[in-house]
Every structure is written in structure tokens, then in C-alpha cells.
């Protein structure tokens, strides 16, 4: 195996650089040109882009109302797939679920609703950042046909570039520690059949975002 | 690339192109007519034949170089070279420096001639700074433009022809969303890959029929020959014309108004 | 995949006469092209072009340090718990995957779309070892059912009409007859569902590898990549060696310019950064992650004058803009990579002599370069490949002789003039109604051109440059 590796590195040797005048960009322009957004503006941009990506955005007036919204989305089901409640910015979630007789699992292929928090929400594209970790099951945002993501307003940031810049300020360690980070922009979809857009392919068919203020 | 100097006041050597020479000499005459109307002195180096693009595009660089050397000799006394073709102009301006980059004797001359080569419409508008020929068409005409690929993407031609034709009285330019789509000529591609070329032509002709224009205008007789060849074979009434011919017609009508120069 | 690129001309002819294919491909490519235009220039033309220049600089800068980046990526991945392997060629890549499969007693594989795995013919290798392989990307799943090959880098079944897809699902997968696209997709989802959950191994490609963090990055819309890289115990990724980029900043640009160019999206639904197998405190994710860096001819391209071709991020924008691809579809190109980039990569991978028509399968219109997010000068490389073909003797005798005659005649104005006169005589006088030799294809689609009675040279000469009072032709 090391000989194949050596062979490949040997084959890559050139006496000159292939692009002598090319350099890394001195400043990286953002894909979406940024203005100085106030938090309210940023939130409005996030909601608009999330909705354009076919997310359904809920804006309950309080944490309590947020929990009711969540329970409505769960409906008659008695079991959901979910991150550990400590990872979701909803006060009293665990109690509310118990009282409603709804069991939580990490992974279950038959469950209809999955509930997660997020690491961040990207306004420019309406995307959610979810990294795996203790109690943050991938399956909850992947297997059920309905994914409910609880986002606290302070998690909204402009775009991917600033989010990565923030990771860099902590040395990219946390970034690397997560075995898997995924940006989710709307429900799954395909246009492979004669360019006709179909929502809900292998991932969830519906993505609900519940926007809350920070839990106290 | 040597910087381009202003061609104002200089003698123009016409690079008429092999297809205009053999198939559409009247288009060559239109070019001369318009340039002389603008007060430009025009000569015609008799030693020119073809710039060598067909050979070059075919990968036959030895043969292309032979023809290019002949071109360089024919135009060695030229101060400004003007050609009614985006693709031929692109060949001299962009490929000649590459063709001769390792030739110590001819590299400098190739670069010189590249730097003094202009396509016809860009010469008038960008070179001479003239937007309006004060011409008039005999009857109202609606034109859509076909942007020949080499002219558009390599020489940056887009607005000059539209400006000149648009300023003719009785000429209306209609927008056409197929203007930047290749017609399928591609030089010898048209016969080497005849079926593909024919299918691209088929698509082009569909869009020509839907254009709402009386005629399509092009800056390249190569594209024009291919498109008209298909339109005629199909029995269509639509035709593609060269911009120079329309401009010449316009100034013949508008000659009473006098030349726009100074 | 077997190479059939020397068959381009007859294969293209068949595609051109296939009315369904013409409709389907035109619709698919027009849609992709229009969406790309809209999103790339949503913030103005200047901004879109600036982003292209930035992406182009990023890829070229990365290629400048490719060996160092590969080393850096390997080290970072190993630190992350990813096992890194190296495959010189297709045979070795296949062997490595088989070894991993055997090691983990793999009987069933779910796979997401990967052009590298098409290059090496991975599915056939696994199946001949009695390993069940299921393509999960909807388009690739349909391709697999139909036992054919994908025809586009991003939209594998762009050449198929809805009706033909419907028929295939009914015949090969027992789908209850329906016309409804939603129902068809739902059927496919259910069909593949359990297989996802039961598979022993997931195989993916890789869109980017970030050297500084050792991250394997992938994009998808369907969610199949998430499933393939999360559900099975073992995940194997095959990645071309040219995919490594230095930093997360580089990644941010490229992972956003890719969907814009490919499908007109600002972000694909799922944008993954995979940093390793599940951590000790995680309850899901694969237990083993392998990354196989595949050369298979890339290093040869790297050290050639065609290195720029390795900047390709496989977005498919050039296919969507290409007027040739629009009428030939992808299969005519005869290998894994169709369209403009395919016309360059195929001869570089499989040898010019095995793909001789492809560099000529272009009118050199330049649209590919205009839409490429990393500004690859495809027309330039096609011209250079044509020169290579001529120099190496892979062009036909009639063209070679024709060109010599043309250059000979072109070097003398007199000869050139006689040739024109002869053509005029032949067409008008002798009513010759097709052009000779290799030029005969002209009249299949176009009327014969009319040669002028007097050339411009002649007219100028006769009137001493005056040109007044010349009879209109």
C-alpha cells in the first residue's frame, strides 16, 4: 500500500508549478454580498430564504407556545425521534413530552417526526447547521418524513463564510471533533424525473423551523 | 499583447476573408463603400488569400503557419487592418501571436499585426468613435442580431453592430434570446461533424422563425452561409444578411444628408 | 466503463434522430442553463464574474500545491480516525474496496453517485464478488434498473422522458402504474428505504477534501448521501486526487459556486462535511470510514500541459450550455464524462487514439468557458488536443491531404483564385451539387453555396480599387 502511495507522489512531480501566476485570493469575497444587517433584518432574511427553500417557519410568541406548536406537529404520534432535550433550546420540553405520553428515541425508522436543535442558522441561504455529537442523533433529522428544527434567534448568522470564520477563531478543533456536520437547506427533493421538482426524496419531506428566543 | 493605438486618420488595409472573396464579393464592396463614406483611405493587399483558420482549427498548425506567413507578408505595410469577420479577426488578433510565439523572426510582426487588426463594426464605433452613419433604409425593417461566437466571446463584439444598424432610419432591432447560441457552423466542423452541425442548424432555424424579425444580421459570412444554406434548403423565406450590406444600403439612401465625418 | 468514444459520429447520429432524446435533453439543459444564469448574476454580473475569478484562483492555487495538500489531508484524516488508502489505477481501487468489503463481511452496499466509481467500473466488480450493490441517487437508480449508463454528470437520466422512466419502473421494479411524478418518486423512496437501513456498507464519492481539517465534503439534494454515509457500519469514499483544497475558506466558495453552476441553487439541500467515524459518545454514524484517493490517470494529466482540466468541480454547467451536447446527449461521447469537459478529459484519461473524434466534437463556440465556475479554457485545450491528434498521426488521410492542398493553394493568390474559379465553374457550369471528398456532408443539410463569377480580388484589380460601377452580382 505504501508503494502505491509513493508511486502516486512520484508521478505528481513537476519541475514547475502548473499555474505560476495563480495565488490564493487575498480577500475572500462572500458568495452573497453582505450588508450590515441588524438582528431583525437578519432574521427577516433568514425566514424569507428558508421559506424559499420550502421550509415552514413558525414564530410562536413564547417558549410555551413553541412547545404547543411542536406538539401539534407531532399530532397523534406517541413516539418521536429526537436529540436529547438538553440540546434543544426549549424550556421544559422533556416534561411536556412526558406529560403528552410521547416517547423519545434516538433512531427509529418507523417514526414520523424528528426533532432537533441546530448549531447555527444561515440567513443568506435559509440553511441550518447541524453537527453530530453526544445526544445529537443524525437520524432525527434524516429518517423521519417530518423534521422539526428548533432555532433560537441568537443562532442566526449571516452566511457560511462567517460561520466558518467563527469556527476558525476556536482553532477549528470543535469543527473537526464533530464526525459529521451538515448544512440543511429545506426538505429533500429531486428533479431527476424529466426536470419536475418533487419534494421529499430520501430525506424528510417537510422541514419545520420553530423560531424562539433564547431559553432562559 | 501590444497596446492598441487609435486607428483614426490611418490608412486601412482591407482583410476581406476568403469566403467573402469567393462567395460574397459584394459584401467586401459594402465594407469599402462604408469606410470610404467615412473618409477612410482603404487599400487591398492583393497577396492575401486566407488567414489559415480552417487549418489551425483542424489541428494542422504547420499548414496554418504557412498560410499565416503569407498573410503576414501580404500585410507587412499595413497601418490598420480591418476585416468583416469576427472569427477571421480573432484568428489574427488572438491566435497569430500563439502560432508565432516561438518564431524569433516573425513573432514581433505577428504581434504587431494582431494589435492593428479590427473587426469592421468595432473599427467604426470603438476605433473611429462613430455611432451614427446618418443612413436610412428604403423601407422599415425589423432585424434580430446573431452574435457569431468568435466575435462575441473572443473579440468582445456585441454592441457595435447593433448601434450602427439601430441608428439607421427605418431600422428596428428586435431582442432575440437566441442571439448568443452557436449556429453550428464551426468551420470544418460543419462537414466533419455534419449531423451534429445539421442538428444545431435545425435548432437555430426554429429560433430564427420565431424571432419576429424580417431578417437576421450577422457579422460573419461563415455563419451566414451555413444558416442561409439551411433556410434555403428548408424553403424558408427568412434570410441572414451581413451587417456591412445593411449599412451600405443605409448610406446609399442617406447620402443626401452628407457624410457624418467631422 | 468501456470506452466507445471512437464511435462518436454514428452514436451522435442515432441520438439526433431520437425525437424523445432531443426533447428531454433540450429541456434538461435549458432548465439548468437558465437557472445558472439567474442565480450566478442575482447580485449583478460583476459580482458573478468576480466569484468565478475567485473560484478559478482557488482551484489553481490548490493544484499548484497538490502533493503537499494530499499529504496534509492524509495526516488530518488519520488524526480524525479516517483510514486513508491510495489507488494508482482502476484495478487497485476495485481491489481495495473488495478487501474492505471482505474484511467487514459486507454482503450489501448502498451507493451514492460518484463519477470516479463509474470510471473504475466498481459496481461490476462488487457484483461479481456476489455483493449486492444498489444505486440510491434516483437518476442512478433508474440507470441501474435500465442497465445503462448515466448521460450527464449531474442529471444522470436527462436523456429519458418521463414516460420511459415510468415504463422502466413498472417493468423492472413492479411499480403500480401511475403517471404522477410524486408517486413515482415516492415509490422509489420506499423501494430503496429498507435497503438503506439494512446495508452493510455505504460507498460515496467526494466533491471536495479540505486539507487543513481532513474533511470529506459532499453535496446532494435527495438525502441519499446522508443515508449512505450515516446508516451502514462502514463508509468508503472514493475521491480523485485532484479534489483536495487547502482551507475552509476555499471550501466555502467552492461549495456554494458548485450548486449555483449545477442546478441554480444557492445551496444544495444537504451540504456535508465528514470528519470521521462516529465518536465514542455518538449513537449513530459509521464505525469505520475509509477514504481511497484514486489516481487512475490524474497524475499524468497533472504533469502535462492539460493540468487545468483537473480544476473541474464536476458541476455540469458546460454540458448545460453546450449546443453540441444539447443535440447529441451524453452517451455519444462513449465514456464517463460527456460534454465539453468530457471531450477534453476522455482522451486524456483513455488515450487520444481511443477518443479521436471527441476534440473535434465542438464548434469552438466558447460557451463552456463562459459558464465554467473555475474558468477552464476548454476551447484552448480542444485546439491543443486537435494539434496533438494531427502530430501523432491519428487523423485520416483524406483530411491530411485536403489540408495540404488547401495550404498549398492558400500560399499563392493565383492558385487560390484559380481554385475559386474552378469551384464556380463546377457548381454553375457543371451543376456539381455536392462538395468533394471530406466536404460532402455540407449538402446533407444546406444548399450548395454559390461561388461568385468574379472574386473580390478580381473586381478590385479590374477597377483599380475603385469598385464603382461594378455590376451587382
The biggest sheet of chain C amounts to: 6 strands, parallel
The proportion of strand residues of chain A reads 15-25%
Mean pLDDT of chain A, rounded to whole units?
94
The CATH architecture of chain A can be named as 3-Layer(aba) Sandwich
Describe this structure in words.
The complex is a heterotrimer of chains A (216), B (262) and C (473). With 216 residues, chain A is of the alpha/beta class. Chain A is 27% helix and 22% strand. Chain B contains 13 helices and eight strands. In chain B, the strands form two sheets. Chain B has a four-stranded parallel beta sheet, with helices on both faces. In chain B, strands 6-5-7-8 form a four-stranded parallel beta sheet, with helices on both faces. In chain B, helix 5 packs antiparallel against helix 6 and helix 7 (120-127) crosses helix 9. With 473 residues, chain C is an alpha/beta fold. Chain C is 51% helix and 10% strand. Chain C contains 22 helices and ten strands. In chain C, strand 5 and strand 6 form a beta hairpin. Chains in contact: A-C, B-C. At the B-C interface, helix 1, helix 2, strand 2, helix 3 and helix 4 of B face helix 1, helix 15, helix 17, helix 18 and helix 19 of C. Strand 9 of chain A pairs antiparallel with strand 9 (270-274) of chain C, so a sheet runs across the interface.
Write the layout of secondary structure elements.
The complex is a heterotrimer of chains A (216), B (262) and C (473).
Chain A lengths: L1 H10 L27 H14 L3 E3 L4 H12 L4 E4 L10 H7 L3 E3 L7 E4 L3 E3 L4 E5 L14 E7 L3 E2 L2 H10 L3 H5 L2 E5 L4 E2 L7 E2 L6 E7 L4
Chain B lengths: L11 E3 L3 H6 L1 H13 L4 E2 L9 H5 L3 H14 L5 E4 L2 H14 L7 H9 L1 E3 H8 L8 E11 L2 H6 L4 H8 L2 E5 L15 H4 L1 H16 L5 E4 L2 H14 L5 E3 H12 L8
Parallel strand pairs in B: 1-2, 1-3, 3-4, 5-6, 5-7, 7-8
Chain C lengths: L7 H9 L2 H22 L4 H20 L1 H15 L2 E5 L2 H14 L4 E4 L3 H6 L1 H7 L3 E4 L2 H8 L16 H12 L7 H18 L2 E4 L3 E3 L4 E6 L3 H7 L3 E7 L3 E2 L2 H15 L7 E5 L13 E7 L3 H5 L14 H5 L1 H6 L10 H12 L16 H5 L6 H14 L5 H14 L2 H17 L12 H4 L10 H7 L11
Parallel strand pairs in C: 1-10, 2-3, 2-4, 4-7, 5-8, 7-10
Antiparallel strand pairs in C: 5-6, 6-9
Amino acid at each position: 500500500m505504501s508503494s502505491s502511495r509513493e508511486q502516486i507522489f512520484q508521478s505528481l512531480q513537476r519541475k514547475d508549478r502548473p499555474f505560476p501566476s495563480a495565488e490564493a485570493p487575498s480577500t475572500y469575497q462572500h458568495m452573497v454580498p453582505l450588508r450590515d444587517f441588524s438582528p431583525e433584518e437578519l432574521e427577516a432574511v433568514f425566514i424569507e430564504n428558508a421559506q424559499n427553500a420550502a421550509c415552514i417557519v413558525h414564530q410562536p410568541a413564547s417558549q410555551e407556545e413553541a412547545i404547543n406548536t411542536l406538539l401539534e406537529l407531532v399530532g397523534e404520534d406517541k413516539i418521536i425521534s429526537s436529540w436529547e432535550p438538553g440540546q434543544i433550546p426549549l424550556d421544559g420540553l422533556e416534561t411536556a413530552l412526558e406529560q403528552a405520553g410521547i416517547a423519545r428515541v434516538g433512531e427509529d425508522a418507523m417514526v414520523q417526526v424528528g426533532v432537533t436543535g441546530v448549531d447555527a442558522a444561515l440567513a443568506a441561504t435559509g440553511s441550518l447547521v447541524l453537527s453530530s455529537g453526544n445526544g445529537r442523533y443524525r437520524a432525527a433529522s434524516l429518517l423521519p418524513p417530518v423534521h422539526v428544527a428548533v432555532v433560537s434567534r441568537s443562532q442566526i448568522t449571516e452566511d457560511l463564510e462567517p460561520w466558518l470564520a467563527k469556527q476558525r477563531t476556536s482553532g477549528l478543533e470543535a469543527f473537526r471533533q464533530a464526525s459529521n456536520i451538515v448544512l440543511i437547506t429545506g426538505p429533500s427533493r429531486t428533479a431527476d424525473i424529466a426536470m419536475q421538482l418533487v419534494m421529499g426524496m430520501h430525506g424528510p419531506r417537510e422541514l419545520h423551523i420553530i423560531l424562539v428566543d433564547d431559553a432562559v | 499583447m501590444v497596446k492598441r493605438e487609435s486607428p483614426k486618420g490611418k490608412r486601412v488595409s482591407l482583410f476581406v476573408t476568403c469566403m467573402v472573396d469567393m462567395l460574397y464579393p459584394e459584401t467586401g464592396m459594402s465594407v469599402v463603400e462604408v469606410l470610404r463614406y467615412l473618409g477612410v483611405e482603404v487599400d487591398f493587399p492583393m497577396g492575401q488569400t486566407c488567414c489559415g483558420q480552417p487549418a489551425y482549427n483542424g489541428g494542422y498548425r504547420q499548414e496554418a503557419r504557412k498560410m499565416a506567413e503569407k498573410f503576414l507578408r501580404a500585410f507587412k505595410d499595413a497601418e490598420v487592418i480591418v476585416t468583416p469577420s469576427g472569427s477571421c479577426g480573432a484568428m489574427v488578433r488572438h491566435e497569430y501571436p500563439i502560432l508565432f510565439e516561438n518564431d524569433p523572426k516573425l513573432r514581433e510582426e505577428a504581434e504587431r499585426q494582431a494589435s492593428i487588426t479590427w473587426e469592421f463594426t468595432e473599427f467604426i464605433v470603438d476605433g473611429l468613435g462613430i455611432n451614427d452613419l446618418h443612413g436610412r433604409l428604403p423601407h422599415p425593417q425589423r432585424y434580430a442580431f446573431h452574435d457569431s461566437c468568435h466575435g462575441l466571446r473572443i473579440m468582445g463584439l456585441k454592441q457595435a453592430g447593433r448601434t450602427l444598424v439601430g441608428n439607421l432610419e427605418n431600422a428596428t432591432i428586435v431582442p432575440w434570446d437566441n442571439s448568443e447560441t452557436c449556429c453550428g457552423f464551426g468551420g470544418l466542423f460543419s462537414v466533419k461533424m455534419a449531423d451534429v452541425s445539421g442538428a444545431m442548424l435545425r435548432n437555430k432555424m426554429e429560433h430564427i422563425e420565431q424571432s419576429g424579425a424580417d431578417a437576421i444580421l450577422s457579422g460573419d459570412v461563415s455563419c451566414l452561409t451555413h444558416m442561409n444554406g439551411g433556410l434555403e434548403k428548408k424553403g424558408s423565406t427568412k434570410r441572414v444578411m451581413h451587417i456591412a450590406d445593411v449599412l451600405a444600403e443605409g448610406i446609399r439612401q442617406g447620402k443626401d444628408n452628407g457624410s457624418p465625418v467631422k | 466503463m468501456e470506452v466507445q468514444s471512437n464511435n462518436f459520429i454514428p452514436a451522435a447520429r442515432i441520438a439526433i434522430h431520437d425525437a424523445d432524446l432531443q426533447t428531454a435533453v433540450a429541456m434538461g439543459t435549458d432548465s439548468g442553463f437558465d437557472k445558472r444564469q439567474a442565480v450566478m448574476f442575482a447580485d449583478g454580473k460583476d459580482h458573478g464574474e468576480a466569484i468565478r475569478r475567485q473560484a478559478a484562483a482557488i482551484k489553481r492555487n490548490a493544484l499548484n500545491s497538490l502533493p503537499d495538500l494530499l499529504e496534509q489531508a492524509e495526516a488530518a484524516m488519520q488524526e480524525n480516525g479516517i483510514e486513508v488508502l491510495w489507488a494508482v489505477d482502476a484495478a487497485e481501487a476495485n481491489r481495495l474496496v473488495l478487501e474492505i468489503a471482505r474484511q467487514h463481511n459486507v454482503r450489501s452496499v448502498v451507493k451514492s453517485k460518484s463519477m470516479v466509481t463509474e470510471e473504475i467500473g466498481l459496481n461490476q466488480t462488487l457484483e461479481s464478488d456476489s455483493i449486492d450493490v444498489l444505486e440510491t441517487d434516483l437518476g442512478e437508480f433508474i440507470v441501474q434498473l435500465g442497465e445503462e449508463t448515466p448521460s450527464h454528470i449531474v442529471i444522470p437520466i436527462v436523456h429519458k422522458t418521463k414516460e420511459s422512466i415510468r415504463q422502466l419502473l413498472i417493468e423492472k421494479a413492479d411499480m403500480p402504474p401511475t403517471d404522477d411524478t410524486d408517486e413515482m418518486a415516492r415509490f422509489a423512496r420506499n423501494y430503496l428505504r429498507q435497503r438503506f437501513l439494512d446495508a452493510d456498507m455505504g460507498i460515496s464519492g467526494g466533491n471536495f477534501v479540505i486539507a487543513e481539517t481532513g474533511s470529506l465534503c459532499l453535496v446532494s439534494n435527495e438525502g441519499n448521501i446522508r443515508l449512505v454515509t450515516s446508516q451502514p457500519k462502514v463508509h468508503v469514499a472514493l475521491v480523485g486526487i485532484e479534489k483536495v483544497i487547502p482551507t475552509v475558506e476555499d471550501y466555502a466558495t467552492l461549495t456554494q459556486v458548485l450548486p449555483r453552476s449545477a442546478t441554480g441553487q444557492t445551496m444544495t439541500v444537504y451540504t456535508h462535511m465528514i470528519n470521521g467515524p462516529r465518536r465514542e459518545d455518538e449513537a449513530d454514524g459509521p464505525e469505520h470510514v475509509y477514504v481511497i484517493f484514486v489516481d487512475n490517470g490524474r497524475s499524468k494529466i497533472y504533469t502535462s500541459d492539460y493540468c487545468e482540466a483537473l480544476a473541474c468541480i464536476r458541476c455540469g454547467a458546460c454540458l448545460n450550455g453546450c449546443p453540441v451536447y444539447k443535440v447529441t446527449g451524453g452517451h455519444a461521447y462513449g465514456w464517463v464524462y460527456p460534454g465539453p469537459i468530457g471531450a477534453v478529459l476522455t482522451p486524456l484519461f483513455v488515450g487520444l487514439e481511443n477518443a479521436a473524434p471527441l476534440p473535434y466534437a465542438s464548434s469552438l463556440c466558447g460557451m463552456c468557458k463562459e459558464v465554467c465556475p473555475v474558468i477552464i479554457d476548454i476551447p484552448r485545450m480542444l485546439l491543443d488536443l486537435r494539434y496533438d491528434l494531427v502530430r501523432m498521426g491519428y487523423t485520416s488521410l483524406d483530411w491530411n491531404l485536403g489540408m495540404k492542398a488547401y495550404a498549398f493553394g492558400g500560399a499563392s493568390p493565383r492558385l487560390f483564385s484559380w481554385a475559386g474559379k474552378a469551384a464556380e465553374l463546377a457548381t454553375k457550369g457543371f451543376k456539381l451539387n455536392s462538395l468533394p471528398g471530406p466536404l460532402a456532408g455540407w449538402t446533407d443539410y444546406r444548399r450548395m453555396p454559390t461561388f461568385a463569377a468574379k472574386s473580390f480580388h478580381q473586381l478590385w484589380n479590374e477597377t483599380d480599387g475603385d469598385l464603382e460601377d461594378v455590376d451587382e452580382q
